[in-house]
Design brief:
With about 325 residues, the chain is mainly alpha-helical. About 60% of the residues lie in helices and about 5% in strands. It folds into two domains: about 130 residues, no CATH class; about 190 residues, no CATH class.
Amino acid sequence: MAKDLTTSPLDRQNILNNRYALETLEEHLGLGGTYYEEELLFTKQQLVELFGVSESTIEKYLASHSDELSTNGYRVLRGAKLREFKGLMDVSVIDYGNKSPALGVFTFRATLNMAMVLVESDRARAIRSRILDIVIDVMAERTGGHTKYINQRDGNYLPAAYQEFNYRKAFTDALDNYLEMGKVKYGIYTNKVYQLVFCENAQEYKQILSLSKKDSARDTMYAEVLKAIASVENGIAAQMQAQSEQLGRKLKLAEVDALFNAAETNPFLKPIIEDARVKMASRDLGFRDALHQKLEAYIQSVPESDFEKFLGEASRSLEQQLSDPEILAVFKRLKDR
């Protein structure tokens, strides 16, 4: 979907939290600046020249976006740090003159932030366009050209998927043994689990992610989502068994539905379900450009740690993980439990 960085703080932060995109942007944009303490810094006067706007325009955005710009690196230098920084620069690009007791500086990240919000500048508009192109290229390069299975690059995915598989078997066995209903029950109650965890049924989920009929929805789910699904499946299965044995018969449809209704308000499940919703909604929008409308209230910016997890050196394809003896040892421990 098209992104308007000037109006979307979420889209801006998702880019600015992506260290790999920032490294490529710094290399290719060539915006200038001065290195100080291994960080590229810009003065307000440099931003005036870079974007072709007045000093008062920069001040206006500093006031209107102060929290965001500070989060992304804008700060004020004073004392020894200011003297050291001034010693590296031509006085003409220092905002307040050589005798000023303080100087506001923008990191490269904060400078990009300013380019994303500055609507008065054609140069900022061109930089925004270049930013979006480079971010797309970086994502494609680091994920092998697609993001459908970016979830599987998480080192926690395989153990979570294996555990969920086991709990899924316990759940379907419970449906077999304790629910008086035909085979249609498997699809119905799978969708009830999905709706309880992330408010969508399987078909809705596949449509949002543009999955084909042959694609497995669970193969694309994040570890945290699989853990939430497993928690619900395991809890419902145990409750079905207990209630059926107490009654001395299989359960009726309404009785199992009542268990699901109770699970929706279960305080023990609430934290894990809310975490799964935040992870799914935020990551799918940030990584897959997929919007879960029913989870819009849970969307947050993707944290820097997630970019490391899914794009960084520690992230590996499923094939690489399966060849790792340590991962295989984890599977053996799970199997032997």
